[in-house]
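Hey, resending since the last one bounced:
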Amino acid sequence: MTARQRLLVCLEQFTADLDWRDVARLLPEWEVVASRPGQVAEHLDGVAVVCPFGARIDRAVLDAGSFGLVHQFGVGLEKVDVTRATELGVWVSRVPGDVSGNADSVAELAVLFLLTLVRRLDSARAALASRRWLQRPTGGSLLGATVLIVGLGAIGAEVARRLAPFGTRLLAVRAHPELGAPPEVETGGRTG
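The C-alpha cells again:
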C-alpha cells in the first residue's frame, strides 16, 4: 500500500457543523491535517499540499516546508508570498468565485443585507412583535436608488446582476477598470 499524502488545512474546523474528519472521508488517499492559522510552520512535516484558508503563507512558511502546492479554497492570495513560492517551484492556485458558486452565494447575501438595511427590517420586525401595525412600509426602496459596488470581480458582477431588476442605478469601481463592467453597471462612457 502506498503511503497517503498529507494535506494541511490551516483552519481547525471547516464549519461549525462539518469537521475535517468528515471532509477527509471524501479524500481517502490523503491524510488531512489541520492547524491554526498562526501555527502553519509547526505542521509542515511531510505535507504535500497546503490549503491556507486565509492563513499567512509567507517566506518563512514556504522555506520551512517541502510541499509542492498552495491551494486557496476560494479567492484571495494576498497572504501568500507568490513570488517566493514561484522561486521555490511551489505551485499556487485558487478556486475562482464564479466557478465555485461562491460568487453567487455571497451576492445573494449582499442583496439580502442591502434589502434588510433599506427596508429597515429590524424596525419592522420589532413593530410587528409589539403588535404596532404599520400604516406604511418602513424604510426606503431599491427602485430608483443608487448603489455603488466596490470591487467588480466575480462577486461584484453577480451583485450587479441581482440588483438590476430592482430598478437600481448601479455604479462600480474596480482595481482594473480595463476589464470593463457588466452591462447592468453605468459606465458614463468610461470602463468601471
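The helical segments are 20-24, 59-64, 82-88, 97-100, 102-118, 121-129, 154-163.

Sorry for the duplicate.
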